[in-house]
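Q: Here's a chain of 336 amino acids. Please give me its 3D structure as tokens.
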Amino acid sequence: MRIPERLLPLVDQGAIDEVIRPLMSGKEAQVYLVRTGEEIRVAKVYKELDYRSFRNRADYTDGRRVRNSREQRAIAKRTSYGRGLDEQAWHTAEVDALFRIHAAGVRVPEPFEFIDGVLVMELVQDEHGEPAPRLADLALSRDEAKSMFDHLLREVVRMLCAGIVHADLSDFNVLLAHDGPVLIDFPQCVDPAHNNNAHRLLVRDVDNLTRILGRFAPGLRRMRYGDEIWDLYEAGNLRPDSPLTGKRRQQAQADTSSLLAEIEDLERESRERREALGLPPAAPPRAPVILSDPEPEPEEQVTPSPSKRKRSRRRRRRGGGSQGNTGSSQGGKRRR
């Protein structure tokens, strides 16, 4: 087949020898089946920002930092240079995560090369040597679903112990290889030590697994492992083999931050639906009106009329005069 333009630099550098065929296309990247020497591998070509359908990217980039402070300021200001750096950091996040969790024993495709926005990595194969199917394409028995859930839940725990939350775990991001399930697609992964959304994203990953495999094993739907795993992580007690019960936390331990985050998600979805339907943005909520007791009106001061003032002065004069006369007569009698 004709070699895609994005793969030409890898052919020139000898990272790949032949492009066999396209393998799949997702919201983040186009994946090709390639040959390097005698090995068949995959080349993941990341899509440019304008051609990606991944939304709410800020939830995943929160807390991501680059080493250079100047570059970090450029990213924060969203300059053209900063947007290029941000795009590069988005691509390299998956490469860094793959190397880290592969070393921690998590079953993921082994990464080999990352050149010009193209990641060359291991091809996950089924028992016939063909590209492994996705979990979304399989039907499982009850026992198979329970076994798959236990295995994937331990992978989630092992990743968290290594400092990674997948943040987009679904049945499309799990391949069933000949030796067990393999996790893929990590560009949106987050660092739980720095991302404020990590708790919510971890719980969502676990709930997705519960919902997906609960179709085949309904008993899984009653289990609530996400918050339990996070509580152990926050307390510093999480280990790859930590025992888990799957019990819901007590109501007194409700996480208000998660509730607020869910409310924000609902508001965001409402905005996106209105945009998709061509409706204007919803009016902002009105500020609450605080009712208070009315202030008492000042008493009206009545100005006396001129006639009343004159009568008042005459009464004062008459009163003063009689008192003076009485005093004089009494004084005269005393003198006698």
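Q: Can you summarize the key feature?
A: Strands lie at 18-25, 29-36, 39-46, 111-115, 118-122, 174-177, 180-183.
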